[in-house]
Automatic annotation (TrEMBL):
Signal peptide: none annotated. Gene3D superfamilies: 3.40.50.2300. This is DNA-binding response regulator. Pfam families: GerE, Response_reg. It comes from the Bacteria. The keyword Translocase does not apply. It comes from Streptomyces aurantiacus. GO terms for biological process: phosphorelay signal transduction system; regulation of DNA-templated transcription. GO terms for molecular function: DNA binding. Keywords: DNA-binding, Phosphoprotein, Transcription, Transcription regulation. PROSITE patterns: HTH_LUXR_1, HTH_LUXR_2, RESPONSE_REGULATORY.
Length: 226
């Protein structure tokens, strides 16, 4: 089965480049192109892509509003959003992660990194660089969103002790293999704990699990990166 990708970017040349790159892969195909957020939401609802590759800065309805709409739509629960961003838009990326985005990539990524990132998100994992994620979490995710609040620690009450351990290690940016080594269990066991925690907490994917881990205080953010 091919991974179905929807491109959302206001730059036609960039969309064309991404389409050529993605369509050259046997395991992926582009199912649509949107030039703004409103069109991205409409196309997502019409074509149900596996992934929306979303630029965050677009005219009219921006990528943040589009991500929020897509991730809040029950009929698009299987659609993941991968954010394309630059360093200057970290606050928007943090809001997108709160809204349910599965990760982010810089617009200066190599072709191989982009394709690997799409495959990672399609497999159900989050695309969160430990270094970049720690900076984002320290600066934005441990503070309430405007008009919002942090998640109460009681939200974790349904988790087992092992599920909390695995969730905390995942929030530190560790892979399933690394967590398995730390806990002396198999990667499959780690994946099972991750999915059980996601189900109990109503998290769309690993990215939201990371956000919840920090916002409930299960993991404490370190000092901001300089």
């Amino acid at each position: 089965m091919s991974v179905r990708v929807l491109l959302a970017d206001d730059q036609a040349l960039l969309r064309a480049t991404f389409r050529i790159l993605i369509d050259s892969c046997e395991d992926m195909t582009v199912v649509g192109e949107a030039s703004d957020g409103r069109e991205a939401v409409d196309l997502a609802r019409a074509r149900h892509p596996d992934i929306v590759l979303m630029d965050i800065r677009m005219p009219g309805v921006d990528g943040l509003a589009a991500t929020t709409a897509i991730c809040a739509d029950p009929e698009l629960s299987a659609t993941r959003v991968l954010i394309l961003t630059t360093f200057e838009t970290e606050d928007y990326v943090a809001q997108a992660l709160r809204a349910g985005a599965s990760g982010f990539l810089g617009k200066d990524v190599t072709a191989d990194t982009l394709l690997d990132g799409l495959r990672t998100v399609a497999s159900g994992d989050a695309l969160l660089s430990p270094g970049a994620t720690r900076t984002l979490i320290t600066r934005f995710l441990t503070s309430p969103a405007p008009g919002g609040h942090l998640a109460p620690p009681e939200r974790l009450a349904e988790l087992t002790v092992r599920e909390r351990e695995v969730m905390a290690l995942a929030a530190e940016g560790k892979s399933n293999t690394e967590i398995a080594g730390d806990l002396t269990v198999s990667p499959l066991t780690v994946r099972t704990h991750i999915h059980r925690a996601m189900t109990k907490l109503g998290a769309r994917d690993r990215a939201q699990l990371v956000v919840i881990a920090y916002q409930t205080g299960l993991v404490q953010a370190g000092p901001p990166a300089l």
